[in-house]
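The data are quoted verbatim for completeness:
=====
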Amino acid sequence: MNSPSGASGGVHWRSDIASLVFPVEGHGAICAVHRGALRTLLDADPTPEACLGYFARFEAAFRAAAHAKIARKRILPGTNLHLTSRDIARKLLEAGQGERGEQP
């Protein structure tokens, strides 16, 4: 199941890589979050719909995590990247939204 890329700011599920993907504004690339990372954050075996719902609920943390990783790793513009559950959990905790997810 692939969600349309026009949905909610370009976020969609890519079944070929079992990942949620979204464009990173100002970077010219996409960011992927594998199903395994989302499994850790959701503390359950996630469906694509559950992953998209989690992204919608915590979109700011996902986007902040992507920008932080780009800065930390000095990822060149136009280079795709992926986030781990720790990348996202770190931003959730910083925002006081750390109800689930592993400790950074």
